[in-house]
Amino acid sequence: MPATAHASWNKLQQLYESNKDSLTLEQLFAKDPQRFEKLSTEFKGKYTDANVFLDYSKNLVNEDILNALFSLVKEANVEKLRDEMYSGEHINTSEGRAVLHTALRNVSGELNQQEEGVADVPKVLQHMKEFSNAIRDESWKGYTGKPIKNVVNIGIGGSDLGPVMVTEALKHYVKRDIAFHFVSNIDGTHIAEVLKACDPENTLFIVASKTFTTQETITNATTSRDWFLESAKDKKHVAKHFVALSTNTKAVTEFGIDEKNMFQFWDWVGGRYSLWSAIGLSIAIAIGYENFHQLLGGAHDIDLHFKNTPIEQNLPVLMAVLGIWYNDFYGAQTHAILPYDQYMHKFADYFQQGDMESNGKYITKGGQHVDYQTGPIIWGQAGTNGQHAFYQLIHQGTKLIPCDFIFPVETHNPIGDHHRILLSNALAQPEALAFGKDEEQVKKELGAQASNETLVKSKVFPGNKPTNTIVCQKITPATLGALIALYEHKIFVQGAIWDINSFDQMGVELGKVLAKSILPKLHGEGDTKDLSSSTAGLVNYFLSHAK
Ligand SMILES: O=P(O)(O)OC[C@H]1O[C@@H](O)[C@H](O)[C@@H](O)[C@@H]1O
């Protein structure tokens, strides 16, 4: 059912109209000294040390609004849909598939999940364990008997972003005597620069592709195999230097990779939800299998929290409904993710795909065109860098940008006062965004210059900008797993309320198909009559300038 068909949607619209001019964070806090205690909640892992504390008190919500948002969750049957996802029903309706990334990390076995392939998950994990150990303890040797010192993950989208983000976020745990490289872009520069840093005798290529048909990945893998064979000569050596992570056995073996060097996963693992699967092999090699298992465990702990916690204290639900409040009622177009942890500098990039490919849809599951906003534009970067780049617009621009601030209590690198200085910023920004600075205060600070009205106005901060603050003890593998799963389920809840299929990605197809038809034209083959005059003009410009 479209989101607007729920009674609570209308209620929320009314609440928005009646509160939008009067609801201020300043008043909300002034009225209720217990607001922080009431509007914050902590998750602690059952099986791991994962922990996430969420302070959502700096949001433009009162009790009535929160209650209406919770009613929306109930009316949209989010809990039923969640249970259907967990139990393996084919909720990816357009592709007729189950959505079972939770089965990849069901480390306790508490989730009862039925689908072809689920029973094989432990077997693949065991394979990953043995293989990653063999690379790390150097018992796996290259064709000249040397241990592996370069690992190149070749993949794109979900077969790249997860491994890149996690190996960065958990760099503290990464084995430093192996260099990890990630090649995604079809631009030859990407592979060329990586190959310059590698030696064919000690390089392992991990070809990561769910479909094993993705143009970028297959082209980069072919280029790498050619480069490797220039030195190794004999094709039989490929077995020691190329492995594949895929659902497509036929295409993998046709490429020349031995089936026993293939790590399987299944069509019920969406690309952007696949770092928990064989796609995580580079992560397991980098941080060690035990840590990879902790990553899975932390995510599993959030899966259990999402399943078993009442919606009022359910972290993914809270983050989802707050997002909907701004996205659909306040008209916010974007959402910023701002981790105050340098290791997490790729977290927002990762969730650009995670969120935008999941919820960037305008057709409901029933085939109707939505008459409301769906997925926000996700962006962000690690603090404090963002402060010196784009925070100006968040503070004083004309757009409302809800933000998530994320920081760990403990750093992996306690040097001097760095961490407390970092955290003072992570705390100062949401405070400034929420409460701003009024004209009176500015005038007081300006003293004699207060007569300059323009100057006064330009120094006023309107405040009332909503933020969440997410605090973890430390970015350990388990806590990172929990954070990722938290956002995954937030995306799920929003998609469920918007009544869209968060698990297909039809919107990326058209450009791919067109690129295939344009490629021969860039070789001067065929005519350009089927293209617009603009694109045809550009093709001809290219052809007349190409050397
Ligand atoms: O893993 P594959 O099959 O090579 O796909 C890579 C990516 O391909 C993109 O086209 C999809 O939009 C992504 O969802 C996917 O992650």
TrEMBL record:
GO terms for cellular component: cytosol. InterPro entries: G6P_Isomerase, G6P_Isomerase_C, Phosphoglucose_isomerase_CS, SIS_dom_sf, SIS_PGI_1, SIS_PGI_2. Gene3D superfamilies: 1.10.1390.10, Glucose-6-phosphate isomerase like protein, domain 1. It catalyses: alpha-D-glucose 6-phosphate = beta-D-fructose 6-phosphate. Pathway: Carbohydrate degradation; glycolysis; D-glyceraldehyde 3-phosphate and glycerone phosphate from D-glucose: step 2/4. One of its GO terms (molecular function) is glucose-6-phosphate isomerase activity. Its EC number is 5.3.1.9. It comes from the Eukaryota. One of its GO terms (biological process) is glycolytic process. Keywords: Gluconeogenesis, Glycolysis, Isomerase. It holds the Pfam family PGI. In the cytoplasm, catalyzes the conversion of glucose-6-phosphate to fructose-6-phosphate, the second step in glycolysis, and the reverse reaction during gluconeogenesis. Belongs to the GPI family. HAMAP family: G6P_isomerase. This is Glucose-6-phosphate isomerase. It comes from Wallemia ichthyophaga. The lineage of its organism: Eukaryota, Fungi, Dikarya, Basidiomycota, Wallemiomycotina.
